[in-house]
Amino acid sequence: MTSNLWFAFSLTLFAGLSTGIGSLIGLLSKKFNPRLLTVALGFSAGVMIYVSMIEIFAKAKDSLSIALGPKMGYVWTVVAFFAGIFVIAFIDKVIPSYENPHELNVAKKIESASEKEKRKLLRMGAFSALAIGIHNFPEGLATFMSGLTNPTLGVSIAVAIAIHNIPEGLAVSAPIFYATKSRRKAFTLSFLSGLAEPLGALIGYFLLRTVFTESTFGLIFAGVSGIMVYISLDELLPTAEEFGEHHLAIGGLIAGMMVMAASLLLFA
After folding, report:
1. Which residue from 241, 211, 267, 207 is spatially nearest to 45, judged by alpha carbons?
2. pLDDT for 217-228, tens place per residue?
3. Backbone Cα Rg of the chain
4. Closest CA to 231 of 163, 139, 111
5. Which residues have a Cβ under 8 Å from the Cβ of 195 and sit 6 or more positions away?
6. Please, are residues 186 and 121 in contact by the beta-carbon 8 Å criterion?
7. Is 80's pLDDT higher than 90?
8. In this structure, are residues 12 and 189 in contact, taking their beta carbons and an 8 Å threshold?
9. Cα(70)–Cα(155) distance, rounded to whole angstroms?
């Protein structure tokens, strides 16, 4: 059990710290490939949607059916699925759009900024780090729970979330670097925002471990499934299309689903 815990936590740490990769890409590269980012984000969305709807939702339903019976188990799986969607949607809603990482459009704001507006970029970057940290809490729990119950599934989800965290790191580091000209400050804030992911995993685990039953497992997994579907539809696909062509994003999405399906078949 201890080895499983460390494995699940290491996956969550890897996924969270990928925000630092995004920060480094933004700070060190002179030119980035938007088409490659589009495919990568689409691929990540495909992995997360497929695994949520085909694997995680089904596992949640099985657990709740054992605990509550087939009919009520299915009902509570659906309720928890949409509860997960509403929770992450509420987090999106309460964060003001100016600080919301989904609404940043960093490149456009930097290009059109006046000198006065440039001085505000530091505040924007700092609040972006806070906002991304809040968003990373449920993602951390999703990665941790998946790694704890199914290592193969956990690795797939960790990689998908890591890919989608990369542009978030860029969203934090770009305005801070532009405002301060300090690569260290830009990277540090981006790095710290990613630590919310393993923190969310630890808090979620220690709060829930004393009541961890088939019912608890099923409700959490169904909620995690809803969270991942929302992230894919609200974050990954819109961002993918913003950076590149529509068909590249859809192609990446289908490829992600196919790879996830193949991996589940191989390790079933």
Report:
1. 241
2. 788 889 888 888
3. 19
4. 139
5. 16, 17, 133
6. no
7. yes
8. no
9. 30
Residues 6+ apart with CB under 8 A from 217: 60, 63, 149
Cα dist from 136 to 91, 99, 181, whole Å: 11, 15, 27
Residue length, the chain? Answer: 268
The Cα 90–Cα 223 span in angstroms is 14
- Do 35 and 245 contact (CB within 8 A), yes or no? yes
- Dihedral angle sign, alpha carbons of residues 133, 241, 18, 107: negative
Distance CA 77, CA 17 (A): 31
Pinpoint the alpha helices (H) of 69-150. Answer: 70-94, 106-111, 115-149
Q: Give the span between the Cα atoms of 105 and 1, in whole angstroms.
A: 43
Distance CA 76, CA 68 (A): 9
The token pair that represents 58 in the structure block? 């089904």
pTM of the model: 0.66
Helices vs strands, H then E, count in the chain: 12, 0
Residue-wise pLDDT for 89-136, tens only, equals 887 777 655 444 444 444 454 445 455 555 566 666 666 666 667 667
